[in-house]
Design the sequence.
């Protein structure tokens, strides 16, 4: 069984027609799955359903064997990390360091552990030099690495990234690629929604193509080696 499983899922925003139509899908940690397709085909909506951020009107979304409907956001966050198309949406604290420490402090994690984890995350995501910076003054690539570091702190088993290469120059893309490869080597499952063909070609072992709220192609190259 997949780590994330959608079964006969329909989803509509409010009273509109279904945006995602009768979709069934299994996603595995061993894969690097790319979701591609034209604008408005439902990729982001599908990603948010997979991450338990949206709830389907019909059908079920299972995360690690549990119906996402019965899971708290905290329980979901330990399993699935979601990087928004615009990482600013998930940054709240007055400094980079606090962005990483406050979720752990709220959970009552021991101070020494909080400091160690924040330090480690800043090193992995190459933002240690920005520890005291105000997050909204960071560049797009730095904001994205901070958002990823904040996800990393929860040690998720699966990551869903919405258009992670948007606004990144070639060098920053190489940095991001290295970070995602590290996640992969640690066994973290990965779904990337992307228009970036070169990026998909470099990373994906499975490509899912959406059109009009449905999956029209699902191709596997191979599991990662
Ligand atoms: N919050 C919302 N409320 C109402 N309709 C929405 C909302 N978000 C998306 N939609 C609609 O749902 C459809 C699918 O949008 P979605 O963002 O999932 O597609 P996408 O394939 O990710 O597009 P893009 O490549 O442009 O990001 C579109 O018609 C869009 O207008």
Sequence:
């Amino acid at each position: 069984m997949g780590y994330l499983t959608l079964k006969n899922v329909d989803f509509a925003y409010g009273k509109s027609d279904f945006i995602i139509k009768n979709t069934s899908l299994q996603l595995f940690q061993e894969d690097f799955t790319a979701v591609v397709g034209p604008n408005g085909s439902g990729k982001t909506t599908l990603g948010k359903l997979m991450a338990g951020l949206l709830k389907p009107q019909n059908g079920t979304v299972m995360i690690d064997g549990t119906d996402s409907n019965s899971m708290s956001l905290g329980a979901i966050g330990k399993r699935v990390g979601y990087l928004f198309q615009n990482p600013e949406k998930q940054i709240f604290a007055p400094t980079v360091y606090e962005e990483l420490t406050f979720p752990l402090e709220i959970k009552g994690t021991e101070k020494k552990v909080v400091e160690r984890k924040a330090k480690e995350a800043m090193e992995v995501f190459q933002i240690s030099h920005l520890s005291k910076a105000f997050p909204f003054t960071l560049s797009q690539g730095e904001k994205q690495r901070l958002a990823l570091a904040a996800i990393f702190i929860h040690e998720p088993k699966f990551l869903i990234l919405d258009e992670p290469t948007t606004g990144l120059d070639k060098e920053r893309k190489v940095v991001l690629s290295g970070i995602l490869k590290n996640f992969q080597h640690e066994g973290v499952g990965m779904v990337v929604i992307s228009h970036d063909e070169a990026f998909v070609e470099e990373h994906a072992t499975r490509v899912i193509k959406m059109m009009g709220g449905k999956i029209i192609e699902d191709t596997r190259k191979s599991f990662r080696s």
